[in-house]
Amino acid sequence: MKHVIEVEKISKTLNENSILQDVTFSIEAGKIYGFVGKNGSGKTMLFRILAGLVDKDSGSLKYDGEEHIFGKQIPLRMGVLIENAGMYPEFSAIENLKLLASINKRITTKEIEESIRAVGLDPKDKRKIQKYSLGMKQRITFAQAIMEKPDLLLLDEPTNALDKEGVVLIRQRIKEQKDRGCIVCLASHNREDIDTLCDEIYQIEDGILYPERKDNEK
To answer: Are 150 and 182 in contact (CB under 8 A)?
Structure first.
C-alpha cells in the first residue's frame, strides 16, 4: 500500500502566539520532503503534530484517508528524531534500543543490532550512552528512528553534530528509507542536506507554509 498523509488548514497557537497558520500539504510514500525555516518558524511543532505528540487547534490530518483524532494510535509505523530524543545515559546503546523495541515488540535483537551497525556503531559496545560523543549520540538516535522500518520518518536536524563521514553515512541511510517506500520528512539548517536529499521542499515562515520549487532532480 502506498501511504499518503493529507494535512489541511492546520493551525496551532501557544500562549497567544500563532505557531502554525492554515498549513496545507500532501505527502506520499517513496519521497523525501524538506522543511526549511528559521528557528521558531514552526517546523518542529508541525513534526510534533504529525507524530501525534501535540494536538492541533484546528484543521484536518488524515493518514491514508482516515482522519486522525488526537490520542488515538496513528495507523502508520513511525520513526521520530525530534530535538535530540532522550536516551537513558546509564544504559548502553543496545540496552536503550532493546527497551524502546519492547514497547511495540515488532523487531528482533538481530534487527536492533543491524540498525546500530547501519549507523556505523558497534552493537557489542558496552559503554554507557553518557560516555558517547555528541556525534555518536546522534547516530544512535537515528538508529532508533529507523530500526522498526517505519512508514513515516520525521527527522529534525538528523546530521547535527556529525563529522563529514557521519553526514555522508546518515544521508545514505535516509535515501535507503525513501527507496523502500517510506515517507521521509526532513528539517535541517544544513542546506546541502535539503538540496541533496529532498524531492520536494517547503518553506515555513512565521507559521505559514510555502512550496519551494526545486529544479534539479536526483
So the answer is: yes
- Tell me the pLDDT tens digit for each residue of 172-187: 999 999 999 999 999 9
Residue 134, H or E segment:
helix 134-146
The domain in which residue 29 lies consists of 1-77+187-218
Answer yes or no: are the C-beta atoms of 21 and 207 closer than 8 Å.
Answer: yes
177 lies in some domain: no
Q: Where are the beta strands (DSSP E) in the chain?
A: 4-14, 17-28, 31-36, 58-63, 66-67, 78-81, 152-156, 183-187, 200-205, 208-212
User: Chain centroid to CA 61: how far?
Assistant: 17
- How does pLDDT run across 45-60, given as a tens digit for each residue? 999 999 999 999 999 9
Grid coordinates given for 47 = 513534526
Q: Compute the distance between CA of residue 141 and CA of residue 84 in angstroms, rounded to an integer.
A: 7
If one counts every other C-beta atom within 10 angstroms of the C-beta of residue 43, the result is 26
- CATH number of the domain that residue 58 is part of: 3.40.50.300
Q: What is the pLDDT of residue 61?
A: 96
Whether 81 and 145 have beta carbons less than 8 Å apart is answered as yes
